[in-house]
Fold each of these.
Amino acid sequence: MAVYKRGYQRYEGTRTTAWERLMVLPRYSWSRLITQRLVIAVLMMSAFWPLLCAIFIYIANHGELLAGFGQGFQRFLAVDGNFFRVFMSVQSVFAIALAAMTGPGLIAPDLANNALPLYFSRPMSRWEYVLARLMVLGGMLSAVTWIPGLLIYGMQVGMAGSDWFSKYWNLGLAVFVGFLMLVLLTSLVALASSAWVKWRVVAGALVLGFFFVLAGAAQMMNAIFRDKAGSLLNPIYLLERLWMSMMGIDSPSESEPGLVQCVFALLGLCGLMLLVLERKLRPVEVVK
Amino acid sequence: MNLWAKQVLTIARLEVRKAFLSKRGLWVYVLALFPAVIFLVHGFDVKLKRQRWSSQITDHALLEGVQAGETASDVRMRLGPPLMDREFGRRRRGEDGERLEEERYRHLRYFDGQRRYDFHFTNGVLKEKFEQPLATLEENSQVFAGVFQYFYLRLAVFFGCLGIFMNLFRGEMLDKTLHFWFLAPVRREVLLVGKYGAGLVAAAVIFGAGTIVTFLAMLWGLDPADVQAYWQSAGPGHLFWYTVATVLGCVGYGSVFLAAGLLMRNPIIPAVVILFWEAINGFLPAVLQKLSVLYYLQSLCPLPPPVDKEVPAVMRVLLAPAEPAPAALAILGLLGVTVLVLWVASRAVRRLEVNYATD
């Protein structure tokens, strides 16, 4: 007679779909992040600028309020590509700050506590795990980027009418696609930093360092070489060139890198981050 | 030597080795030496260009005589074959958003032995003429002033100190080793001073040396006679004040980040706030500008940084740097702030409880 006997039966119940399984991670992460006071504070702060822009649009579209002002002031109130570029630049600062605060907590604790085998022993691949984490950040960052961006654009279209829309239809697309690119890059940087250093606090510093130190290093190289090729190292510059090009306001000087080079540099940065994630996210690690 | 001083030295000796040689801190060296590497590459590039272009020198008077409106073929015929002849077309968008006809651009480059001349033609007619010395001491000093104040102080020293000083206590928390220090028969204030001393020595040596190497690299590739004259006049003074500003930057930022690491579980928040405060420093009223580390460090710099030509006019109007503080006041002010911040940190470290679970 066996001293230990255990039988198994295959699970025959209803299976969840791949999409539902994928959404488990974002669902729990969002509910955890939304309870953090700091995240709420940054989200609230990031709403101020769109609010100011909405007021600007309201004033710009009410000619009767501007009757007493000169031509120069009325030109200042034009809602065009430059307006949306400034809007996007300001919001991108909040997006980077938010990514630096929320991103490092997504992967680093799993690595530090050896939790990856628990994830990967379930029906979830490494890339699904990365995608799920990207969705967490993408969702958070969308709230400060393309969602307010499209609301502002929609407000302007509603107030200015079809003439303005037919002239500036590309701005809405530029806001959406440009912000998506920003969300993708900042999310990948935050996740890669989180996977690289394993510690939340250090990873947060690394995210800030990536954007600010690279921007500074690019400016420094431009100053020393009296050239603009160093700008290819600056992720913020690359994104701004892409935005401006989509908005039709890109007028680079002769020495500045071309748009194609900027796009390739952006893709290169994204590829580098994916490579870091590929190297660091292993369910089993052999320590020699 | 009394007991506390001995304990401070022992702690500093143990920590300083970790600060200099830890694998986790190697990026600080990269940050400190990166400008030096770029200046060296530039110096090499200048030497190489001078050597290559010297075989094709054009008369200075002929180059000066070229006027706007001349055609490319006329200029080429008069000056001879250029160093560079590049031609390309570009479609430009008009103000109303409609595409315009393609325009042809042509760039010709010449060298007179000291300066390079760039002629930019649009549709065959000279529109712009640029004249630039290959590299001069005055120009390089201006570039160094900009690199030092915009990159080195604001970013390299800032993030370097963030990494070094945050690691002193928060790093021990992450490594789950802080309790070993707390179990030793040593006052926490003594531990704080010992760790701060170690961090300061590491940061000051790494970034101070980085400043000196970058300064020397800036001079490399320039005319030796100019460099010698510079060393006999303002050079040593400039190098001294840049190094003092770097070391005081480490003193100031170091104390702030050490305190931040003790007072807050996530020191990134104060780091973001300080980074933002320092970034908008130039736009603030004079009184508020004095409430930053950067104001005192900039007061010590021998040359003001150049203002970027691409900065919009509105921003230039808003940019109002406060009158620099006298050197003695700047040094005393920074040291005073550091003592105050360390006192706050010493109060915090007395109340610190080890809680590894949260990190």
Amino acid sequence: MNGAGTAEEATSESRTGRRGRRPSAPPDAAADAQAESPAPRKAGRVTGASGTALLWSAGLVVLALSIAVAITIGPARLAVTDVWHVVAARIGGGESGLTAIREGIVWDLRLPRTLLAAVCGAGLGVCGAVLQSLLRNPLADPFVLGVSSGASTGAVTVVVLGFGGGALGLSGGAFLGSLVAFGLVLLLAHSAGGTTDRVLLSGVAAMQLFSALTSFIVFTSADAEQTRGVLFWLLGSLASVGWSEVAVCTAVLLVVLAVCLSRAAALDAFTFGAEAAAALGVPVQRVRLLLLVATSLLTAVLVSSTGAIGFVGLVLPHAARALVGSGHRRLLPTTALVGAVFLVWVDTAARTLIDPQELPVGVVTSLVGVPAFVLILHRTGRGRTERRGAGR
Amino acid sequence: MSLRAEEVSWEAGGRLLVQGVSLSPEQGETIGLLGPNGSGKSSLLRILAGIRPASSGVVTLDGVELAALRRKSVARRVAVVEQHADTSVDLDVLDVIRLGRIPHRGAWSSPRPEDDAAVRAAVAHTRLEPHLHQSWHTLSGGERQRVQIARALAQQPTELLLDEPTNHLDIKHQLELLTLIVNTPVTSIVALHDLNLAAMYCDRLLVLREGRVAAAGAPAEVLTEELVHDVYRVRAAITPEGPDGRPAIRFLRAEGSSGTDTGCTRKAIYR
């Protein structure tokens, strides 16, 4: 007998009652069993449509508050009401009542930066969640297909070697580089058979190749100043972003999120592998290509404006799964919210922790994220072994 | 007759793994697919499910070629239970069974009453009520197969394709699972290794050898000592002593393994 844990204890009576009639009992034997199992679901997991709606509303409120509060934190002292007045004045017209400098700090510096942190966290989280399901690998993250290393090579080529004659700019070079890397991964994977493993291996190969290229260029051609700038960008930085980045990233995030949500059922179908998905009516090749292109495009856009912010896309999907389970219709928006809130606070920490200096945000994501990740692993791992131990 | 295969072949890596196989099951019957390892059972099932296109020949569903149908329409009619389904995703039994409704749902629509009804019926048929909220990773092999069958039934198929569903199960669970499959009111095509189980539970058998049909028909017609020797290269004594006079197969020791060769065994026993 292999039932386990609480489910087993709660219903052992009904089971033993029916055991004797196996194996020839007709289906109606089920009628005497409880219609719905009384076994409790996983503790702490939000279930049901109303529970999810509540979670999302709460998440949006927390996100809005986080953004408002995060903007007030920093060398220039501001209040949440100041932030509100500036936003109201800029959007609705009229006067904010603040000095031009303080208004500038809110509207030109901290607000776009904080918004981009939210968009970036949401986007990286969603890409990670989709890629983990699509490639059936819990270690997959938005950078697993070489997009970030391609971006860094592109950026370095522009900044250090002066490729493009200044017309391209760092983010333009990064975007081009990531597209080249992703194209190479697709080509490699396709020529190797196009299976999930091949895609992953091609991604890892491309990642190594472009990292090596980046290092090569930096070591052979860059001066100290350039090296420092490149390094900062490699670890991810939200400093010096403007409204145009916010607009582009938000637009791409919304489109890609919609695309991924429209394929949420297909992503669920990949749970037991590509063949099982095909047997459930999913046009596997088409869906896979669509989602790979969509997530890589979003990652490329994000990476080219902020650099490669690691860890968010790897870990936050797991945190979101612990909250709402693995169904993608609920998982993707939850991951987006969790990622947004997370990165808003991490970026706030990055720019204030060693004030007046600034830390690369990627450093803080890992410093904060790893202990959190260990906690999640520990919690879910323990739950699983307990249940397993009782069953086997 | 709804799902039909006509002279289907499938070629991979320059080898013909399935060659000119035809199959037309009657509504509601259980067909056993027999044959040694590598004889093309799994490949044939994949072709029948439309997961792989046939290299030649056609598979039709109600007279329409499978290749001309949308994958989703096929999945509403034909459900597949794989030999060994597993996942690293942490989900519970009900989540797995609900996967079966994917082919019936639109991209944006939430579950409708008929989805819940189909899931409930599948759960009742497989008697999984006590396990609904149990994690997939805590299930035994037999329970996992029952969950996969429930998921397949939630697809409300007219044909159910099963690839060695009794593999790795103990004998009690093998019998239970086949009883469950036979009692399911859909056409089932089951790849099996155990000849006795095939004889006991299947209405008809199709025996494959190197991708070709070696024999087809009722168990009593198909399972003869000659055929077992031809296809499996083993000697067997077959008597009509199974349930309802179905054939019962008793395997004999391979030639050369009796007599002196058993000396060591005997020594081991008597020591």
